[in-house]
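Thread: quick sanity check before group meeting

JM: Hey all, I'm pulling together slides for Thursday and realized we never actually wrote out the predicted structure for the chain we discussed last week. Dropping the sequence here so it's in one place. If anyone has concerns about the input, flag it before I start.
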Amino acid sequence: MSFQPDARQLAWLKVVLLVLCLLPATRLAWLDWQGQGAEDAIELAQRWTGSWTFNLLLLTLCISPLRALTQMHWLLRLRRLLGLLTFFYAVLHLLTFIGVDHNFVPEAIARDIFKRPYVSLGFAAFLLLVPLAVTSGQWAVRRLGGRRWQELHRNIYLIGILASGHYLWLAKNEQWLWALVSSAAMGLLIGWRIRERRRKAIPVARLPEAKPIRFFKQKPD
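JM (edit): ok, ran it. Output follows.
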């Protein structure tokens, strides 16, 4: 029998998940306050926030396969929190790029986006992530309708592809293996989703010999 938390247990699970996912950001803030790693502060902030954006994106995409394998439907209640945490780290990652790296100078930011393809991929992924974060609440489902909302949020898989390209392009020699493994995991999750979509799209075959069941030989009076 699978674990089925009640409302109170689920609330505590969300609190624990939130605290754990905020630990990387807390550690980065602590290192910055202590002045440790000042020589590589910009690179450290960009790498740290970018890595955790990708990690949380992977965790968000793991929810549907885990739910299908374990039949623990309550896992879906964690997906919104993971998605918002992904967006939180993506915002931090963007701020390190436009603020720390380019001092909020529009010309320098635009030049880098158009000049460097890996920056273009990351920026495109962030732009696609914004409407998903904005429409993550139940009010958006009611406003857009379930079908339109689902179509919009399927962009998460395109975001995964763009983020993988961004990650692989930036990876250095010592980071290449982890970037490759993470991107392969992303590919598996996207492949699983494509397979599920195709499986659900196949119509149920009707047997030619199937006939309706008749309970009366003739129509009753």
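AS: nice. The mean pLDDT is 87. The chain is about 75% helix and 0% strand.
JM: adding both to the slides.
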